[in-house]
Task: inverse folding
């Protein structure tokens, strides 16, 4: 078995026992990047030199037979909207092409303290605005299950890196499904924690009331280990929650017998691919076999969630993106004669069409005469969507749903139709609107054009009940083997 195919737990055990060195583990991941990433384009920056230096430090601890922390020596990839000191941070945008971080994001700081080895910064939709990674200013990442199809987005690069074994695990961000949806399309685990559980300090903001950082892993156990390392309050983030800092990993072994699992009628039927729905319902039956009870629940205002999201999100984008003007941040146009021309030319040259579209939509929604009609109304409906979930959780412990209404779609299939592209988020945006935790776990495959494409099972939980969401995901994973399948690209069959 190649070392880069190991899980975090397997890699940790091997390092601790001295079965291989950290240098060998890191080199295995770097070798995989070298052989596959020209095709997949998961990475924007590969940190070969620093990764090798950090590996040598762990090698020294191994030689001295010192105990290793759970993440010590583990190669981790970071989405390129997380600031890392003295490392290029582009957000996949030409306007930040030459920007280098001057500090470490809190998440990066915590991973370094845990001993993790950062192997690179991954590709994304520009400023995390997209559902396919096609909006990257540096070209799209490709789905390792079918390189003619998208990996999802915006954290497509992180999902691809984990699915293709170009790292052991990765970090992404989720504003409307940007961890869970690419995890589903690439056949890996992706977890969005409760809003505020992970500090956003050092995350380049897209929509501040919706953004949350979370892990990608090959297993739920791996995602949980990463979550344990990065969660916790942070005085530098005013939205950081003062929730329990106790590790969640030990609770994974607890069973789910007697647990009530809600099946919302609004997440099934019209708009959901027939094969995807069948796969999700089959997954639900697994929970029944494990002793859980399936109960019907209703989310009556769910039909408005996507509309709410696409008013609130662009409005916050409009405010957050104002700083990228070629003066405070970002590349400056050299041909401008006036201050206004500097603004307009710098942003026109540096920002892609989807970013500009969302800025314009948000600016319109916040403009005089329209704020009441759009933004304020959306916030009112946001409360109604939140209330629906609170009511549903009175009768169930978690909610089960598809992560994505379809498997991975082809490149260009939705690029010219923003509305069709936005529908890719239809089952994931509610978790961000409400602020609850959600995970996507591999639960099967559907066949398209002669190729098997992954399907993800989404599990949503109550505020700050991240442990239960992870436990329910882990229980399914232990009862099935979908997460063990590897893309044909890994076997040279692509």
Result:
């Amino acid at each position: 078995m190649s070392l880069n195919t190991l899980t975090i737990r397997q890699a940790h055990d091997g390092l601790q026992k001295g079965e291989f060195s950290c240098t060998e583990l890191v080199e295995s991941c770097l070798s995989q990047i070298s052989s596959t990433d020209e095709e997949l384009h998961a990475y924007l920056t590969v940190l070969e030199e620093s990764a090798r230096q950090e590996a040598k430090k762990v090698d020294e601890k191994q030689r001295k037979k010192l105990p290793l922390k759970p993440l010590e020596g583990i190669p981790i990839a970071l989405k390129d909207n997380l600031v890392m000191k003295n490392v290029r941070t582009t957000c996949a945008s030409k306007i930040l092409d030459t920007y280098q971080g001057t500090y470490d994001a809190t998440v990066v700081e915590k991973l370094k303290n845990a001993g993790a080895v950062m192997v690179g910064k991954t590709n994304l939709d520009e400023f995390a605005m997209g559902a396919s990674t096609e909006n990257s200013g540096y070209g799209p990442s490709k789905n390792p299950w079918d390189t003619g199809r998208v990996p999802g987005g915006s954290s497509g690069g992180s999902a691809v890196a984990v699915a293709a074994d170009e790292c052991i695990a990765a970090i992404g961000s989720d504003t409307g499904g940007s961890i869970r949806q690419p995890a589903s399309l690439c056949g890996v685990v992706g977890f969005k924690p409760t809003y505020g559980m992970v500090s956003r300090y050092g995350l380049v903001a897209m929509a501040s009331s919706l953004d949350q950082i979370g892990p990608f892993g090959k297993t739920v156990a791996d995602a949980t280990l990463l979550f344990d390392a990065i969660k916790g309050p942070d005085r530098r983030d005013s939205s950081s929650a003062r929730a329990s800092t106790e590790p969640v990993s030990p609770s994974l072994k607890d069973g789910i017998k007697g647990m009530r699992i809600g099946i919302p009628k609004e997440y099934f039927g019209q708009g959901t691919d027939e094969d995807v729905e069948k796969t999700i319902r089959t997954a639900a039956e697994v929970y029944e076999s494990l002793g859980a009870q399936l109960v019907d629940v209703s989310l009556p205002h769910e039909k408005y969630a996507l509309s709410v999201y696409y008013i609130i999100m662009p409005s916050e984008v409009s405010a957050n993106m104002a700083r990228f003007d070629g003066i405070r941040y970002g590349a400056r146009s050299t041909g401008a004669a006036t201050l206004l021309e500097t603004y307009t030319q710098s942003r026109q040259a540096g920002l892609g069409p989807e970013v500009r579209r969302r800025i314009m939509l948000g600016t319109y929604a916040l403009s005089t005469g329209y704020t009441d009609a759009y933004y304020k109304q959306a916030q009112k409906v946001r409360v109604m969507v939140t209330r629906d979930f609170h009511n549903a959780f009175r009768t169930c412990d978690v909610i089960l749903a598809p992560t994505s209404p379809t498997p991975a779609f082809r490149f260009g299939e939705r690029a010219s139709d923003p509305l069709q592209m936005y529908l890719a988020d239809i089952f994931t945006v509610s978790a961000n609107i409400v602020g609850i935790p959600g995970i996507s776990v591999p639960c099967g495959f559907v066949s398209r054009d002669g190729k098997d494409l992954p399907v993800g099972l989404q599990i949503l939980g109550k505020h700050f009940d991240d442990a239960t969401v992870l436990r329910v995901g882990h229980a399914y994973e232990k009862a099935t083997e979908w997460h063990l399948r590897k893309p044909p690209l890994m076997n040279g069959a692509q």
Observations:
- DSSP finds 15 helices and eleven strands in the chain.
- The first strand starts at residue 43 and ends at 46.
- The first helix runs from residue 8 to 17.
